[in-house]
Structures are given as structure tokens and as C-alpha cells.
Amino acid sequence: MYRNLEELRGVIKGRIKLNEPLKNHTSFHIGGAASIYVEPKDTEDLKKLLLFIRKKSLPFFILGGGSNVLVKDQGFDGIVIGSKNFNFFQVKGNKATAGSGLKLPFFLGLLAKEGLAGMEFFAGIPGTVGGAVLMNAGSQKEGIGNFIEKVEAMDFSGRVKNIYKTLLNFSYRNSNLTPYFFLLSVEFRLKNDQPKIIKERTEKALRKKRESQPIKAYSAGCIFKNPDGASAGKLIEEAGLKGKRKGDAFISEKHSNFIINSGKASASDVLFLMKKIQGKVYQKFKIRLEPEIKII
Predict the structure, then answer these.
(1) Would you identify the CATH topology of the domain 232-295?
(2) Which residue, among 39, 179, 67, 85, has the nearest Cα to 124 in the 3D structure?
(3) Catalytic residue among 120, 152, 173, 237
(4) 39 is catalytic
(5) CB count, 10 Å around CB of 245?
(6) Fold of the CATH domain 89-212
(7) Class (C level, CATH) for 5-82
(8) pLDDT bracket for residue 128 (50, 70, 90)
(9) Where, residue-wise, is CATH 3.30.465.10 in the chain?
(10) Catalytic one among 20, 39, 120, 222?
(11) Annotation marks residue 222 as catalytic
């Protein structure tokens, strides 16, 4: 694998780390090291990095807030790009624009202060704005894509494009952005309301989520997508798997579609439980559960 840091430092200004443990960058706190971890300083830095990666034919993937992802124990033999520095926020009327690296909980707090309503039910969802958009995070009834006007994205040739909602093809836990673009920013259309009322609704949504989900535990969020007309968590519970453990990984007692890292769980432990869940659920219900998390 490519490890010429001096050459790479001559290309970009952002932070570069060699053999960076990815468990330090994921909500699961699991995963081996990236050969190279890079945080581009700005859009120009990102463009130079993507062109460099393309020229050298280097493997890479983009890591936002590190939720909804499981990094394997062997890590990633390539370049991992962090979006931390793409964290701006601005408001114009009832529209808010956020950088892809802005933390989603912080973004919701900013919206409340600005009196922009509609996204309160996202309270308790970890990760970044960009990550939430790429997977169309939300509930079964409503995804973040419903609030989006357009996104600004860079393709892997370094070209920046504005892509409007009609072309984004949002569906349950999916958008068509993932394989082709680095998301730079997202423009949302929201409704005006009193900041105090928005804050109260956000806090109510967060309390409700805390009652039903282990949101403070080390996890990647929901492990499997809900199949049509069913709840993955309920299927897992009815298959008798609640609380089952492998090493320091276990299926949550509070919500069975969460796997928790109670200390030093490995990716192998989590993958073992995922395979067990899929097997038991299919055996009992003839339903194949599809992972919601991305496995690297």
C-alpha cells in the first residue's frame, strides 16, 4: 500500500496520519487501522486529494461521524478521508445550509436557535449531516431527504456540482449519492417557529428515543433495515436473541436491533452476532434481514 507521506504532504494542507486506529473515529469504538487517514482542510484541498488518489489508483473511502459503520479488525489498507473540516452553517430565510461534516446533534441545536422547525424528530441520531443524507436517515415514515432542496457535491474528478432533490432518488435508507460523490454541503428547506417551542419538541423526541434505544452506548445504531411491514428489532427479539453475547459484543436488551460494544468487542464478534441474527430470523420467519450499517 502507498505510504509516501512526504509526497502526500506536498499535495494537501490538511491533517495526515499513518496507521490511524479507526476505532477512534467510529461510534462502535471498533476497528483496525487505516494505512493513511486524511482530513482535507477545505474544498481545494479535497480536490487535490481526490485527483491524487485517482492518479495513483489508490483505494479509499469517506468517513463522516463514524456512526452506522463497522470497520473490520484488519482495518483498511488505503486512504480514509475524514469530513471533519466541512462543518459550516448558514441561514437565509427558511433555508439552512450545513457542511457535510457538521455533527447532526449540533446542527439540530443551531436550527432551534434560528427558529427553523421540522427536523426535531432526528434528535438522538448520531453522526454528521453528510452521513445522514447519504443513507437518508430517519424513521420508516420520514427520511432526511424530505427536507432537502439540493446538495453540493464533488465528484472524484474534482468537479463540484449542485444536485437538486428531484435527481437524488431518496428511498428507505438510501440515496444515489454514495458511490459517486464527496458531499460538501446540504441545503434544507424548513418552517419558521419559536425557538423555545422547537427546543421543547427536540427534547421530547430525545427523551422518547432514550426510553427505547441505547443511544449512549457504543454502537452503530440500528444494525439491520426494517423489512417491509415489519420491525427488525421485534423479529430479532421474537427469535429469542435479545441479550445474546459474543465476547464483549451483545444484542441490546433495550432494543434488539442494536449490538453494543461493552468494552473491547472486535468486529469479528459483531459479525458473528449479525450472522446469527440473520440465520435465526430466517429460520423462524423466512425473512432475510439486510444490514443497515456499512461494513468496511
Answers:
(1) 3.90.78
(2) 67
(3) 173
(4) no
(5) 14
(6) 3.30.465
(7) alpha beta
(8) very high
(9) 89-212
(10) 222
(11) yes
